[in-house]
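Side project, low priority. Logging it here so it doesn't get lost.
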Amino acid sequence: MTIEIGVVGPHDLVDDVAATCEEQPGVTARRLHYDHESQAPAIVEAHAGQVQAWLFTGVVPYTLAREANLPHRPAVFVDYTGATLLQAAVRLLRDGHDVTRMSIDTVTGADVAGTFGEAGLPVDRVRSLPYRSGLGSDDVVAFHRRQRKAGADVAVTCISSVYEVLRHEMPAFRLAPSNHSVRTALRQLMLHVGSQAQEDAQIALGLANLSDGDDGLLKEVAALGGTVARFAPDTWLIVTTRGPLHDATGGFTALPMLRRLADRHETVQIGFGLGRSAAEAENLARRALSRARRIGPTTAVLSLRGETDIVLESTTPTPAPAEVNLAVIAQRVGLSVPTLLRLREVRTAVGDEPLTSREVADQLRVQQRTARRMLHRLELAGLAERTGNLASGTSGRPLTLYRLTL
């Protein structure tokens, strides 16, 4: 099986990154260049149906695409820390620059300190500007100009548009991902693709309790690529798979067919279950339907393994006002209002910085597996997003980074 990956980035990086990807058997790369990082979302949207996964040449185009609610397939970015940063330091030293007096954007101070610390380089005069949502290229250029006046010897940037400005004003170096970093990102992406394929093949069973026959249900289920069969006098069995259900519900957030069926029936209660087997999916669907019946006459619930239940909205949610009704969110994600308030306090404290499950566990004083379960529920409800991985510091698996949006 051949997997086509969309490689998104500036002209001078895409070809090299794509070539490294194509060293992997069974991988082809579609080269998608841009002139400015702001074009990344439009490129992803234009080619969404042509690739199975996305690899961004850096965190900036990746973040811009995610903020535009794209992409809808597995996606990762090449990390510029570790080997990439160390390789850049060696080149700068060779060219006579003082790497202990530099300004660097996009990379966090902790990453710089970690990499330079291993190399025995001091960082007390290194100034960094981590990338965050809303940070534009003009802001980054202004940062480097300030640091130049303060004594920085060289400006190191991960952003092509910033480099094009700075190289005419001061010593500037453009960070380019090392082959090792690209291969690491590709391995991570291939794991995501394999996991996604397994998840999309999961069985999704739905139990629909309708008050007036199956009027309209066949048409709605056809859009899910599924089938319908009578399960009980007023209940119908919906059979589909995870992939179509995920797409139809906007990532397990809303079920528009619920509103349309409510125009035909006084009672529309639907419970979906996702499982690795038909028996598991049916048990979860029964649980979901039971909860839907307790909530109200027009309700849809999705039940997952691990005691996770998600109440699906009847329409695609509009952007929430500043003060969101936490009681509604609590009902949707199966967490208590006090827990959501504490999570919101954590989000406020860190701003746009991502968190690991370990950090959330420490902040909430719960076990790490409990924090992972909370973050998983929030992610499914669209209230947290994965932004990458962080080495755990042990022989265990890397910690997933989440950005809270609730």
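Brief comment: The domain at 202-312 is CATH 3.30.70.270 (Alpha-Beta Plaits).
Revisit when time allows.
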